[in-house]
Amino acid sequence: xxxxEGVFPVLVTPMLNQEEIDWNGFCNNIEHFIEEGVAGxxxxxxxGEFVSLTKEERFKAVEVAVKQIxxxxxxxxxxxxxxxxxxxxxxxxxxxxxxxxxxxxxxxxAHPKENEIYAHFKAVAESVKFPIMIYNNPFTSxxxxxxxxxxxxxxxxxxxxxxxxxxxxxxxxxxxxxQGEGFIKVFCGSEDLxxxxxxxxxxxxxxxxxxxxxxxxxxxxxxxQNGEMDKAWSLYDQLLPLCEYLExxxxxVQIAKRAMELKGCAGGPCRLPRLPxxxxxxxxLRELMAGLGVLKx
Length: 297
Hints:
The protein is α/β, with parallel strands linked by helices. About 50% of the residues lie in helices and about 10% in strands. It has twelve helices and eight strands. It has helices spanning about 25-35, 55-70, 85-95, 115-125, 140, 145-155, 170-180, 195-200, 215-225, 230-250, 250-260, 280-290, and strands at about 5-10, 40-45, 75-80, 100-105, 130-135, 160-165, 185-190, 205. An eight-stranded parallel beta sheet has the order 1-8-7-6-5-4-3-2.
């Protein structure tokens, strides 16, 4: 199994218009992130509009990404689905196509109970052999998975190796990291709790802001790993206004796609019902990006 640690930008799915995916842009974006030195990338996540993509598009995104990366960095694929059967299909396809791991949230409409979440994660993970990163995000799925369930399924299922923790509770990150030592590792899933998560035991970060400033977030992580906390905090202080904008706007997908365009990469529109940023929102994003030195002239 590959080593999953460090900062993984969770990529947008660039589009030529509201219907056509920009596959050339998708490949060029991947090259951009590799050149910036990221630890790995994640695709087909919420930022990639997975719920707005067809099954065929999700499958193709995996195949295109694997071909483009050529094993240079790890690829995590979001394989979420409302039903366990569909999640199994997406996860098996990702493994067969050559991805390195899957990112799996619980059913996001059914609001399942703890035993149902456990059974879902276990069934999907046991259908494949590669690593599974389970995902706790109560803001999108409507369920805050208990620490006990996360630890139990990680203990019971060998290839459930990581958890992306996005509840916003730093105590939860701490408890999973400490109590799960030896069988499950934690990735930060909150844009505004990255260093705090590293300090209590997280070993990585699935980052939306990593789309916009991949070099900065990677440098910040490396400073933490090297014990250079003054340098890490200095970079994080610069990054936090953008992180807070992403977390608080409710438009993180639109922000990420527009930011990619503003720095000369592929972005494009979102699929409806998501609408573009307002003039005021766009101006704020430009201001934040200018302050970070990533706004293309």
